[in-house]
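Assess the record.
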Amino acid sequence: MVETVVSLKPESAWRPGMSYARLVQEMDRKLRYPGMPNTWWMPIQTRNEMLSTGVRSQLGIKVFGPDLASIERAAVAIEEAVARVPGTRSAFAERPTGGFYLDVDVDRDAVARLGLRVRDVNEIVETAVGGMNVSQTIEGRERYPISVRYARDYREDPDALGRALVAAPSGAQVPLSQLARLRFATGPDMVRSEAGQLVGFVFVDVAERPIVDYVRDAQRAVAEQVALPTGTRLEWAGQFQSYERARDRLYVVVPLTLLLVALLLYGNTGSAVETAMVLLAVPFSLVGAVWVGLIALAGLDAQTGVVMLLYLTLAHRARAAAGAMQGFGDLEEAIVEGAARRIRPKAMTVVAMIAGLLPLLWSQGTGADVMKRIAAPMVGGLVTSFALELLVYPALFAIWKRRALPARPA
């Protein structure tokens, strides 16, 4: 893969109506080279992805197999399948067998007859083709090695290189072609291995589409269109792999967080009914939320729910202490006093929380995309949970406290 860094001008200097997505589309359409698919990604992001998953693109498909030939066939077929999936900007499968090499097959019998070693022949090839450092030049405090090797005319093909001379112990100068067979051959330019198996990569650049939805469609396309060779398996890497790890952790962290919140609420209220009513806001707030930000959202839901329940309880206790809780009508008036007549402080609590999150929704620059994913579900969850507290909490409180009212006279 060849990496090129493109520096963009400030957005104020862009053409009217130009956005980052449109800019990428234009550059991708005009910068096309045969055999060189484009992957548009931030330099620091490619390095982070490479360090975490070993894949430089947004999404990678690892093809594990018993040999490089079957891996390459499967990877090329996968490249053709995912290229037709909506949202694919580019797809490129590695060709692990596409390397071009000069093979030097040393004739050990001929070398032994002249009293030479295989190492002597390899050193001549290394010196003629790659060069050898023979000295060093000194320029002030700088040091530069002096390397010598054969001129291009004497090493550009096997016939020319075969005329290189190898000094035998007897003093004879023997042409390299009499001691080894030189030929060009193809082979793997890089051999990757992972988990004890050979592996090849398919790099996929996804455009303007959630990675989870794209992977679901791509997996379906690969299953329908690609027949994997025997012993070959796939693994979806890149950002999707990070998503799967985060999802598995959330399956443990979210229930544990809700349990801790429930224990804290029960320790504060001393009532299982009040704790259950407060926690009712958590699933209702999921209407406006997604996975990211659920942990913080659970704490905010508990906070706003406690405020509502506190006002209802205080109004009920005040009327009960004054002896004005003789029937359902009195209970209804207490609930109206605790809920509707004190809506301003409850609304101020929610509005203050949302106002604190709005700058994250409008933020720009490094890390803004991550913070927006955290702030968006929290704002949506606060709105839906506040609606629950205004509409459902009073009704549940009435059902709960109605059982304690004195019985009506017959």
User: Anything to note?
Assistant: Residues 239-269 form the longest helix (31 residues). The domain at 271-402 is CATH 1.20.1640.10 (Multidrug efflux transporter AcrB transmembrane fold). The mean pLDDT is 81.
